[in-house]
Each structure stands twice: as structure tokens, then as C-alpha cells.
Specification:
Layout: H1 3-14, H2 18-37, E1 42-44, E2 48-50
Antiparallel strand pairs: 1-2
Helix pairs in contact: 1-2
């Protein structure tokens, strides 16, 4: 399901306009994004958990040449 399909379904099932549904969805996603960026965990029962995790850096490889990719950091 795409974001646009979700907006349309939300509009249909909640009797909101598509514009109101898009604003509502964007607001919800923004709240989740800001909360996770602040280092907190977001858990919505029956839906999912959003959290950050740290991973070790990895070496990239240019698929055309096989050469190591330059570091971006």
C-alpha cells in the first residue's frame, strides 16, 4: 500500500477530505519521526515499534568496478 492509497482509505473510512487525511497522516508521521530522533522509542500496540539503533560502519563497493567506495563521513 502506498502513502497515497493510505490517505484515500483514511479519507473514506473517517469521513474526512483527502487533504485533511493527508495532513493527519503527515502530522502523525512527523510526531513519530521527531520522537525517535530525540532518542525515544514509539510503540503502537497492534501496529509496530519505532526505534533507533547504532550499527558499525561498513565498507561499500562500487558494483561497476569492484573498488571500495570513498567514505562519506
Amino acid at each position: 500500500m502506498t502513502k497515497q492509497q493510505l490517505i484515500e482509505l483514511l479519507a473514506t473510512e473517517s469521513n474526512l477530505t483527502k487533504r485533511q487525511s493527508e495532513r493527519t497522516l503527515n502530522t502523525l508521521l512527523g510526531i513519530i519521526e521527531r520522537t525517535v530522533a530525540a532518542g525515544e522509542r514509539v510503540s503502537i500496540s497492534g501496529f509496530g515499534t519505532f526505534d533507533t539503533s547504532n550499527r558499525a560502519a561498513r565498507k561499500g563497493v562500487d558494483p561497476r568496478t569492484g573498488a571500495p567506495s570513498p567514505s562519506r563521513r
